[in-house]
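Lab notebook, bench 4. Still working through the backlog of constructs that have no structural model yet. Next entry is a single chain of 237 residues. Request: give me the structure tokens for it.
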Amino acid sequence: MRGWQKLTIGLVVLSGLLVGADRIAVGVAEDQAADQLVKSGKLSARPEVSIEGFPFLTQVLSMKLDDVHLSADELTVGDGRQQVALHSFKAELSGVEVSGSLDNATVSKGTGSGLITYADLGRLLPPASQFVPEAGKLIPGNTRLSLSYGGPGKIKAALGPMQVGEGTVRVKDNTVTTDGFQLTGLASMIGGATGQHIQPVGFSLGALPAGLKLADAVPQPDGLKLTFQGTGLKLVG
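Model written out:
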């Protein structure tokens, strides 16, 4: 075998070993990062972590990861009074600066999304008696809005047997507010409340995953889709 052929084979084998070592290292780092995220309290359940970019070892040497993807299901979010599940959470983090032991990490920019079902969304809203006094004449005061998809940008609501029409959703800071509901049908006949608008109701979410901020909330057929964003985030540490 000629010398150049031996050299070529040797380089191919060496490259394979380096790639293998790089992939092993990134797998170990992903597991450590997942553990640290739960330990730090930034996520309520252990996520799947994917560190993008190749080679990984050169990123480690610079202590800066180009892109990190997170995914998890059954995370919890809430308003301090009630905790509900956040389904199908996904986040993309860029410019992640880490310490050597991965116990400290900051993020230049992050985006994410997740879903709250309408059943859980109803549990986050206050009881009907707090914003529809007329409801107490027909149903118990602890009854909550029953919510469902009302079409693009809309949520339908009912209070027991009373239809409350459709409302819209808006977001400010980390607060989600539903507005525009109006007593209709049976509800409109109670106490002469025909066409009465229900005052806006909402909730604020605290301790959002990965330190992100709430950016938007969009009604979907299976629930309210939340989107998140943030810059200069303290991810771990």
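Notes after review: The longest strand covers residues 83-98. The chain has a mean pLDDT of 76. Flag for follow-up if needed.
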